Automatic annotation (TrEMBL):
Pfam entry (one): Smr
Domain Smr, residue spans: 259-323
Name of the protein described by the UniProt record: DUF2027 domain-containing protein
Domain of life according to the entry: Bacteria
InterPro entries given in the database record: DUF2027, Smr_assoc-like_sf, Smr_dom, Smr_dom_sf
Signal peptide coordinates: none
SUPFAM superfamilies, A to Z: Smr-associated domain-like
């Protein structure tokens, strides 16, 4: 199961779209009117493309219609590296959404940009981009993906998406998963994360100019420092430290609160130029620790992370070294 897959409830008639994975065996499903519910993996089944085509409500000859009750997958775009042999990898771009996707894919290296492929990828389809060798892993540079989502008819406006990815050997080869649509084992990376829909353009020359003149940037930094408080060097993520309203909270909701607190503290630490920060997550079943480590592995501002002071925290804390 992957982001963007259409599913049906085993013990009901509701259908929806997978929009996230919140906990071991817990899947977040969006049903009608944008309502999202957590479900056990065992309580849902994937609706195959053949079944959807055979039993669709509208004949294929009718124009596409979109009402407020439609449940459309607007996330589920992936890069999938499928092993060809011991060192060869075939790169595919996968569009597992219900939207057509004009896109470009390129690489940045040594300050230069090289276009690799561009075009329009239809909904629920994939395209082979190129083949790569894992022996040249360090020379891949930064992959740059840009796209729009398009669907005929009335839909909400989708912002352009931009994502830059530099793959790291210590995390790349730990991402084995089944590639959606292709059905093959792959090193799988989701592109349309929430941050991808709101790209930020950074102009290094403008920043340097501001530093040299010591004018506008200084004022902006002072303003930001006033609105973003510097976090403590140790952040306790135990749920009872974050909220007193525990009655009725599901496990998935607690995890979401903890991850939001983690991301807020990490962003603040980066904004204030801290050298390191420690997150106390406890041992438990390892879900929170694994989610934190997964997010840290993708953050370009993180130099490395490690278990923090085992004599003090055991294996219940992670120290993050920032760049």
């Amino acid at each position: 199961m992957n982001i963007g897959d259409k599913v049906r409830m085993v013990h009901g008639r509701e259908e929806g779209i997978i929009v996230g994975f919140t906990k071991n065996h817990m899947i977040e499903v969006e049903i009608e009117d944008g309502f999202r519910i957590p479900m056990l993996r065992s309580e849902i089944v994937i609706i195959s493309q053949e079944e959807a085509a055979r039993f669709q409500k509208n004949p294929v000859t009718e124009p596409i219609k979109n009402t407020s009750r439609d449940v459309l997958a607007d996330r589920g775009i992936f890069l999938a590296f499928i092993p060809l042999n011991d060192i060869g990898l075939a790169l595919y771009l996968i569009n597992n959404t219900d939207f057509d996707m004009p896109y470009t894919l390129g690489q940045e290296q040594n300050g230069k940009y090289k276009g690799i492929k561009g075009g329009s990828l239809a909904r629920k389809s994939s395209v082979k981009i190129d083949e790569y060798s894992s022996q040249n892993f360090e020379s891949w540079g930064v992959f740059v993906w840009q796209s729009l989502l398009f669907r005929e008819g009335m839909t909400s406006l989708r912002e352009p998406m931009l994502q830059r990815i530099r793959f790291r050997a210590n995390t790349f080869f730990k991402t084995k998963a089944k590639a959606p649509l292709l059905g093959k084992d792959a090193h799988l990376f989701q592109l349309d994360t929430p941050t991808a829909s709101q790209p930020v353009t950074i102009q290094p020359d403008k920043i340097v100019e501001s530093w040299e003149n010591n004018t506008q940037l200084t004022t902006n930094n002072q303003s930001k420092a006033n609105t973003v408080n510097k976090p403590a060097s140790e952040i306790d993520l135990h749920i009872e430290k974050l909220t007193t309203n525990l009655i009725g909270l599901a496990t998935a909701e607690m995890l979401q609160i903890q991850l939001q607190a983690f991301e807020k503290a990490l962003d603040a630490a980066i904004a204030h130029g801290m050298h390191d920060i420690t997150f106390i997550h406890g041992v438990g079943n390892g879900t929170l620790r694994n989610e934190i480590h997964r997010k840290l592995g993708k953050n370009v501002h993180v130099q490395y992370y490690e278990d923090a002071q085992k004599e003090k925290f055991g294996y219940g804390a992670t120290k993050v070294k920032l760049k």
